[in-house]
TrEMBL record:
<dbReference type="GO" id="GO:0005743">
    <property type="term" value="C:mitochondrial inner membrane"/>
</dbReference>
<keyword id="KW-0406">Ion transport</keyword>
<dbReference type="GO" id="GO:0045259">
    <property type="term" value="C:proton-transporting ATP synthase complex"/>
</dbReference>
<dbReference type="GO" id="GO:0015078">
    <property type="term" value="F:proton transmembrane transporter activity"/>
</dbReference>
<dbReference type="InterPro" id="IPR008688">
    <property type="entry name" value="ATP_synth_Bsub_B/MI25"/>
</dbReference>
<dbReference type="InterPro" id="IPR013837">
    <property type="entry name" value="ATP_synth_F0_suB"/>
</dbReference>
<protein>
    <recommendedName>
        <fullName>ATP synthase subunit b</fullName>
    </recommendedName>
</protein>
<comment type="function">
    <text>Subunit b, of the mitochondrial membrane ATP synthase complex (F(1)F(0) ATP synthase or Complex V) that produces ATP from ADP in the presence of a proton gradient across the membrane which is generated by electron transport complexes of the respiratory chain. ATP synthase complex consist of a soluble F(1) head domain - the catalytic core - and a membrane F(1) domain - the membrane proton channel. These two domains are linked by a central stalk rotating inside the F(1) region and a stationary peripheral stalk.</text>
</comment>
<keyword id="KW-0472">Membrane</keyword>
<dbReference type="Pfam" id="PF05405">
    <property type="entry name" value="Mt_ATP-synt_B"/>
</dbReference>
<keyword id="KW-0496">Mitochondrion</keyword>
<dbReference type="GO" id="GO:0015986">
    <property type="term" value="P:proton motive force-driven ATP synthesis"/>
</dbReference>
<keyword id="KW-0138">CF(0)</keyword>
<keyword id="KW-0375">Hydrogen ion transport</keyword>
<comment type="subunit">
    <text>F-type ATPases have 2 components, CF(1) - the catalytic core - and CF(0) - the membrane proton channel. CF(1) and CF(0) have multiple subunits.</text>
</comment>
<comment type="similarity">
    <text>Belongs to the eukaryotic ATPase B chain family.</text>
</comment>
<keyword id="KW-0813">Transport</keyword>
Amino acid sequence: MLRAASSTLGKRAFARSGAHAPKLSNASFHYSARREEEAKEETSSEVADKGGFMGTGLSHLYAIPAGVAFGVPILEFNWFLVNEETLLASTFVMFCVVAYTQGGDAIAKMFKDEGDAMLALQHEAEDEIIAKMEENLAYMKLTENIVQDYQDILELTGQSYEKLNAAGAIKPKHVLKAQVEKMLTVIAAEEANAYDKAKTALMVEATDAVTAKFLDDKALKKAALDNAMSKLTTGKAMAGGDPVQGAFVKFFSDKSAAAKKADDGSEQKEARANMIMKMNAVAEAEGMYFRLDDKGTPKMVA
C-alpha cells in the first residue's frame, strides 16, 4: 500500500510539473523584439512566482511525505546504499547547498572583486604596453630615414677624409716654410746680438786704449785741451784735426790691420759651430722637420 501511494503521488507530481513546461513546437522565431506582454509571460520571475514543490505550485510541506514515501522503499530495497562514501557525498552536497544559499553572494562578490582587480591590473598592463608601443611607433617614425642619414654621413665622412688628405699633402710645406722663417729669424737675432756684443766690447776696448794713451802722452793731452778750447771760443777745430778723433781712428785702423794678419778662420768657425748648435737645439725643441749639419746646410729628419 505504501509503495502504491508513493507511486501515485510521484506520478501526480511529475504530471503537474510537466504540464507547465513550455513546448518547443509552439515556440516561434522572430527577427524583431518580442512584445513586452509576450516577454513578460516567459520571464523566470513569473515562473519563480508559481513556486511550490518542484515547481508544481504545491506547498513545500508535501516534500516531507514525498521524501518518506520515496526514501523508505529506496532504503528497503537497497536502491541507495548508505555507507561512508554516500554519507560523505551527502554531507558535501549539503555543505555546498548551505554555502550557496547562505554565503553565495559573499563568495560571488569575493570572486567578482578579485576578477575586477585582475582585470584592472590587466588593463593597466595593456595600457602600459600600448603607451610603450606608441612611443616605439613615434621613435620609428622619427628614425625611418636613419639608413639614408647614415649613408649621407658616410659620404660626407669620405669627402672630409679626401679633403683632409689633400690638405695634409700641402700642410707640411706650409709648416716647413714657417719653420724655415722662424729659423732665419732666430739666426738674424743671434747675429744681431753677437754684433752688438762685439761692437760694445770693441768700443769699450777703444775707449780704454785711447784714454790710457792720452793719460800717458802729455802732448796729446795738451792738443786735445787746446782743440776743445778752440771749439768753445771760435766754434772751429784746430788745424790738424781733432786729436781724440784721430786717436780713435788710428786705434780702429790698427785693430783692423792686426785682425787681418791674425785671422786664421778659427774664430769664425767657432762662432759658426756655436750658432749651428743653438739652431739645432731650437729645432729639436720646436719639433722642426730639419736639422743643420756642420756646414749649416738643412737636412730633413724622419
